[in-house]
Design a protein that fits this description.
- By secondary structure, this protein is α/β, with parallel strands linked by helices.
- It is built from 6 helices and 26 strands.
- It is elongated.
- The relative contact order is 0.13.
Amino acid sequence: MLTVAEALKQIQESLSPIAPESVPITEAHQRICRQELRARENSPLFDNSAMDGYALKAEDTLSASKTAPVSLKIIDKIPAGTIASSELSAGEACRIFTGAPTPKGANAVIMQEDTEVQGDIVAIHREVACKENVRFAGEDITTDEILYESGDVLDAGAIGVLAAQGFTEILVGPKPKVAVIPTGDEIVELGQKLEPGQIRNSNAHMLAAQIERSGANATQGAIACDTLDALRQTLNESAKGSDLIITCGGVSVGEFDLVRNIVESEGQKVFWKVAVKPGKPLLFGYFRDTPLIGLPGNPVSAFVCFELFVRPAIEKLMGEKQNQNQFCSATLTQSVKPNKKRTEYLRGVYQIKNGEACVEPHLKQGSGHLRSITHINTLIEIPPGNEVLQTGTRVKIIILKN
């Protein structure tokens, strides 16, 4: 069996990002940038006031205090969006508002709270340092500076920066089309009557939600019955318009586990079986040149293997730079017995207690305990071994993305 790292590496090396598309900036939020974006202009564009107050020459305020203020003549008022009508001379000041361009000749701004006005005279109640309360052109961003690189996620801050720079269209990674195919004679769609021995199609809806949360578009194929013809038909339909196929069930060693058989005989199997718990019978390969990840049918196994392997695959298809699972560490709040041969990923809750990162495993960890994947925010990596990990042990965790 492959290790988790080996399996993930093989998936990543087999996939290539989908060709980018251009979208309006209004649709670029949380998309993956697929071009180098450089600043078109300085930000700020011009020197401007960081406060409502008075623009002046700092040297005019030497020795100013509340008991011995310096008086300056107000020669102009500069609201945001306007410019001064004349250059500032010694002994003069301009009323100015936040964001307004500082007038020529001024080198500082004093807050209005430190002044007192009578007619066209402003009393300065303290010394002002040169450059105080002035935002200078280019101090945030300089022209031609690299803002974002291909593979960066365009979050809300990025959208604000790009809009301020005048970008209207952005080249991004498309949202991959991911087909979900549930398999098994025992699976029935929601709304249909359950016959003895049947279960509802919950996994496909869970996986579709995970796909959408990953930034891709999910489509659900027909439930594939346990015959090669039915499975082949559903796979053929899904392969036509999908960037990735996810099957659920049919990848173990049973007589009716047909997904592995059809991929081996009519597609290309890259690997089967990973030393992971839950999810050992994971399959990766191709069907009709479309990449396929075969997940186990147990709901927890499907959920965990999606987070470990499918989400990074989707991120690779979108062109994201950070398409590997990101680990951090936390302290166990209870003891854990490792699996002897496989790396185990426990569902748990990560939180900060008394300034320390802690993680509490869910009470139920069985692969059929669907409720154990609710109200959690992390997967806890437990390496194989024979020794019990005691309370207080530091472990690696993957914080689940919302």
